[in-house]
TrEMBL record:
Entry GO MF terms: amino acid binding; ornithine carbamoyltransferase activity
Binding site for L-ornithine: N163, D220, S224, M225
Protein name, as recorded: Ornithine carbamoyltransferase
Domain of life: Bacteria
Catalytic activity of the protein: carbamoyl phosphate + L-ornithine = L-citrulline + phosphate + H(+)
Broad enzyme group: transferase
Keywords linked to the UniProt accession: Cytoplasm, Transferase
């Protein structure tokens, strides 16, 4: 069977993604009931290449491998030959000889694609400048756990048309929900990614109008990793796009608020939003562990029927 990679949500079929969300919930419940006794990965190794900072992604992948009976290796360009110019393709071939899967957090999405093309073991995108698909597995899992089937529901993205926004667009396509995107002009997501989603996705400019009646509201930082020098300009350009409790009051009565974190209180969210019961960001963060266990299991072992 050809090696499967997970570089974007489009690498799996809608049916496979729905399976993963269901399986992640089963794995989570099993962990709660029996502790970390399910260990399908004895002697398996995941290489984790981080070219950008991380708290959640590193801890969730490393813990997933440990609880599954395997091992994770943290590799940073600072202390590997990647940082000294060894070609990506050579690194991919070498790691393929030794480890069972590779997880990469990087800048340029095309570098990730080049790595995957040369790798004979599964490659997982742990965030690139263009996408963050692992986060969306946890986000859709959280939404499904709390509100059931997400098909035909409405989510709203407020803020920058960034990597997270692109993955929300792909999630709308794959899981069949509607996505309203509300960005200041000049910060829209990639038009090709929007166009491919057809009428699942719309672009609006007024945050108050965008959230009206919505089932879910989400946002992200205004300046992503690598855009630090644009922080001041972005703070000015995104004025009026802060998500507040009053904004959530305009959405459906049972609206949920998600944020991939880290959050900047007083910028993209009000200082108190994460204390509002509609915000379920700690559950969302915790679900990274369970969703990525389901993903790793699927890529390494195939489908495990519940
Ligand atoms: N949400 C997320 O990916 O967090 P980290 O940057 O801490 O991994
Ligand atoms: N858009 C953010 C997400 C962090 C998890 C970034 O790329 O920095």
């Amino acid at each position: 069977m050809a090696t499967r990679h997970f570089l974007t949500l489009l690498d799996l079929s809608p049916e496979e993604l729905t399976y993963l969300v269901r399986r992640a919930i089963t794995i989570k419940n099993g962990l709660k009931t029996h502790g970390p006794t399910y260990t399908p990965f004895a002697n398996r190794t995941l290489a984790m290449i981080f070219e950008k900072s991380s708290t959640r992604t590193r801890v969730s992948f490393e813990t997933a491998m440990a609880q599954f009976g395997g091992h994770a290796l943290f590799l940073s360009p600072r202390d590997t030959q990647l940082g000294r110019g060894e070609p990506i393709g050579d690194t991919a071939r070498v790691l393929s000889e030794m480890v069972d899967a590779v997880m990469i957090r990087t800048f340029d999405h095309s570098g990730l694609e080049a790595f995957a093309a040369a790798s004979s073991v599964p490659v997982i995108n742990a965030l690139s400048d263009d996408y963050h698909p692992c986060q969306l597995l946890a986000d859709v899992m959280t939404w499904s756990e709390l509100r059931g089937n997400v098909r035909d529901k409405t989510a709203v993205w407020i803020g920058d048309g960034n990597n997270m926004c692109h993955s929300w667009i792909n999630a709308a396509r794959q899981f069949g929900f509607k996505l309203r995107i509300c960005c200041p002009e000049g910060y829209d997501p990639d038009p090709a990614i929007v166009a491919a989603a057809g009428d699942q996705v719309s672009i609006l400019r007024d945050p108050q109008a965008a959230v009206a009646g919505a089932d879910l509201v989400t946002t992200d930082v205004w300046a992503s990793m690598g855009q630090e020098e644009e922080q001041a300009k972005r703070e000015a350009d995104f004025a009026g796009f802060q998500v507040t409790e009053a904004m959530l009051d305009l959405a459906a009565d049972d609206v949920l608020f998600l944020h991939c974190l880290p959050a900047h209180r007083g910028e993209e969210i009000s200082t108190t939003l994460l204390d509002d019961p509609r915000a379920v960001v700690w559950q969302e963060a915790g679900n990274r562990l369970h969703a990525q266990k389901a993903l790793l299991e699927f890529l390494l072992l195939g489908r495990v029927e519940n």
